[in-house]
Design a protein that fits this description.
The protein has four helices and three strands, in the order E-H-H-E-E-H-H. Helix 1 crosses helix 2 and helix 3 packs across helix 4. The longest helix is centred in the C-terminal third of the chain and has 40 residues. By secondary structure, it is mainly alpha-helical. Pfam families: MerR_2. InterPro entries: DNA-bd_dom_put_sf.
Amino acid sequence: MKVYALAVPSRLSLDRFAREARLHPVLVQRYVALGLLDATRDAGGGLWFSPTQLHQVARVQRLHADLSLNYTAIGLVMDLLDRVEELQTALRRSERRGHEQADAEVAGGAA
């Protein structure tokens, strides 16, 4: 009988994270040691992961498999991709404020 989770857990153990990422736990530990994945340690030294890290590990796997990048290059590319995303978010926010300001000026001029 298969059991389905009803809620997304707030954090995943190393074994569960590795199973869901379809990776060996040792490889996941290596990614953490290289700074490619974020994890927290409990008092016993066990690694715990946010479920959002599954997206991050998929990105690492794609960069390694599809572009044949080494782990140093993967870290650099991920930093650049994160920076691009931050800049795009800031640009969208700035554009939205510009539109709101223009709308307010039009509404103020019409009154």
